[in-house]
What we know:
The protein is α+β, with helices and mostly antiparallel strands and 164 residues long. The protein has a single domain (2-145), classed as 3-Layer(aba) Sandwich (NADH Oxidase), CATH 3.40.109. It has five helices and four strands, in the order H-H-E-H-E-H-E-H-E.
Amino acid sequence: MNSIFSRVSIRTYLEKDVPDEKIISMLKAAMAAPSAHNQQPWEFYVVKNRAVLQALSKSSEFTICAENAPAAIVVCKRANLHSPEYADQDLGACCENILLEAAAQGLGAVWLGIAPVAERMEAVKNALCLPPELCAFSIIAFGYTARERSQKNRFDEARIHYVL
């Protein structure tokens, strides 16, 4: 539970490779996420190639930090799902699991939203040469944190409503 209360979005990284074991652990966490009807709508692209990271960094004004990340995971949504109306929720849970496991592994990461913005999705599709049955959902850039930060307390009791 500590990673829930210590995780922050990190956009600056040390020039240090992330071991494959840590990446596999993040992907295992991703695939442990719940999904509607167990449809598991995800596919993942692990990107370490500098040229591809640079292309991904240009997919929106918010993705520039991917350029200097040692790696990124691009989360994609599969077509022809049993319950497509729930796929984005499934993918959101999957992305959160990646972020939490990154923190647990001593890494910094940031969720960079791609879907549902068509131009962003197309830019990522082109950067990765995605097949037609996949569409880009998000980019999660990660690496060893260049600058430590602590999470602010976001608990707000005024937003809690009890129905007794």
